[in-house]
Design a protein that fits this description.
This protein is α+β, with helices and mostly antiparallel strands. It has 9 helices and 10 strands. The protein folds into 2 domains: about 160 residues, Ribosomal Protein S5, domain 2; about 120 residues, GHMP kinase, C-terminal domain (Alpha-Beta Plaits, 2-Layer Sandwich). Helix content is about 35%, strand content about 30%. The two termini are about 25 Å apart. The structure holds adenosine-5'-triphosphate.
């Protein structure tokens, strides 16, 4: 028996860090979007304990892999489902790029096991379960377009931004999320994203209005060499026809929004100078919605 599921990447269309909560975590206000860039997951139940294979030496194969963690958590909380097996992941979502690859894999495993083993959890319960694995997992369970607050786990669904096209780029460096949070704590930011304006644009399906409001506060505290690289890629995206460009999550991934699929494809041809992995994507809804 093999259970198949697709795990969609996410973008933070805008991201603000709004403060610190009593438990020490930072609070966020971010507009999130699931996109067509995806991993493919095959779960093959057998025996006990989980083994994950994705062919990348720097991604864990045991319980530290979020996909394995999700399978274990599902079994322990529902009392149904396999006690172990193999999870094969065709990994297309760049690792440590701010595209939520690990969270998305975990969410896909939760979705798949819930579907195959009698739906023990409804949507809120499945999101709550995801919260135990990571702050981005609840969003990745159902994806679409949403405003996330708290640690990122409090979700307000927004109208799905259909037919929105992107070029996504992954520079050849990663950023340290804890270091960026620490840098934000030391910095008084001069500009902050207009999240309310962004929400209004998304509610109105106004892609141009959304694109001009994209802003990620982590860009303000990147180490200088990374900041320069991100600025350069954003400028190339704008030259290639993007309506706006922004970093996703804590980086280093960068994306540009395009008016339609044709202009994104044409823009991709002009991204050769970016010297990094660039590809087109569009908004996507995970299965089950
Ligand atoms: P986010 O935007 O959610 O903060 P990210 O996209 O920057 O995350 P991931 O690609 O999810 O980062 O990887 C973060 C870390 O998680 C990596 O160091 C990786 O080894 C580990 N990890 C665990 N499980 C997975 C998985 N299934 N896929 C990718 N990375 C995983």
């Amino acid at each position: 028996m093999k259970i198949h599921e697709t795990a969609y990447a996410k973008l933070n269309l805008s991201l603000d860090v709004t403060g610190r909560m009593p438990d020490g975590y930072h609070s966020l206000s971010t507009v999130m979007q699931s996109i067509s860039l995806c991993d493919d997951i095959d779960i093959s139940p057998s025996g006990s304990g989980w083994f994950v294979e994705c062919g990348l030496p720097y991604v864990p194969t045991g319980p530290a892999n979020l996909a394995a963690g999700a399978a274990e958590l599902f079994r322990s909380r529902s009392g149904v489902g396999p006690e172990g097996g193999r999870i094969d992941i065709i990994k297309r979502i760049p690792v440590r790029g701010g595209f939520g690859g690990g969270s998305s894999d975990a969410a896909a495993v939760l979705r798949a096991l819930d579907r195959e083993y009698g739906r023990p959890f409804d949507r809120p319960a499945l999101e709550k379960l995801g919260e135990e694995l990571g702050s981005d997992v609840p969003f990745c369970v159902f994806g679409g377009t949403a405003h996330a607050t708290g640690r990122g786990e409090k979700l307000r669904p927004l109208p799905f931004l259909a037919d929105c096209h992107f070029i996504i780029c992954r520079p050849d460096f990663s950023c340290s999320t804890p270091e960026l949070f620490a840098a934000l704590d030391r910095t008084k930011l001069r500009i902050r994203p207009d999240i309310q304006g962004m929400l209004a644009a998304v509610e109105a399906g106004d892609i141009q209005g959304m694109a001009v409001r994209m802003f990620n506060v982590f860009e303000e505290v990147l180490p200088r060499r990374h900041a320069e690289a991100v600025r350069r890629i954003k400028a190339l995206l704008i030259d290639a026809g993007a309506l706006g460009a922004c970093m996703t999550g804590s980086g280093s991934g960068v994306f540009g929004v395009f008016a339609d699929g044709k202009s994104a494809e044409e823009g991709l041809g002009r991204m050769r100078d970016a010297d990094c992995d660039c590809r087109t994507a569009h908004t996507a809804l995970p299965p089950g919605l």
